[in-house]
Amino acid sequence: MMFKGSDSQGNLNGFLDAGSHMTGELSFEDTFRIEGRFTGTIVSDGELQIGDNGDIDGEIKVCRVVVSGTVRGSLSASESVEITATGKVLADVYTPSLTIDDGAFFEGRCSMDRQDDQKKDADRKKVAQMPFTKRMK
Q1: Is residue 19 helix, strand or coil?
Q2: Where would you tag: which of 11, 16, 67, 85 has the fewest CB atoms within 10 A of its CB?
């Protein structure tokens, strides 16, 4: 199943529909979509999809997240965060890749730790220090 703004095609493991409210801890595999209200902690190695009616207040730690609704609290994604035009994020965001569509709302701090970029920079320095003849091989 595809979700607006998402280019992944994971299996949808669960769905919290509009008009529903859940409080507590949520964990899932692959993909979970929220159109209702959730308060608490969400932890997964999969993708979280927050629909236009989705409203989350709490701590999120996932691999990828697409926000078209509202998120308050803390948002951490090991791969990417996308805030669509209807998305509203009032949270501190920790991710290596952040996309904010025109019309989206973001208020908070963002930390983009790119460990792969640090490794690439170190590799570039090593190559730059090599004698020119070795770099040409």
Answers
A1: coil
A2: 11
Q: What is the mean pLDDT of residues 10-29?
A: 91
Total domains present in the chain: 1
> Per the domain annotation, does 57 fall within a domain?
yes
Is the model's pTM score more than 0.70?
A: yes
Are 65 and 81 contacting, i.e. CB atoms less than 8 angstroms apart?
A: yes
Residue 63 lies in a domain: yes
- Render 49-100 in DSSP notation, one character per residue: EE-TT-EEEEEEEEEEEEESSEEEEEEEEEEEEEE-TT-EEEEEEE-S-EEE
Tell me the per-residue pLDDT of 62-118, one tens digit each, with 9 for 90 and over. Answer: 999 999 999 999 999 999 999 999 999 999 999 999 999 999 999 999 999 876 555
- Domain membership of residue 2 (yes or no) is no
Q: How many CA atoms lie within 13 A of 51 on its CB side?
A: 15
Q: State which H helix or E strand residue 127 sits in.
A: helix 115-129
Q: Could you tell me if residue 7 is inside a domain?
A: no
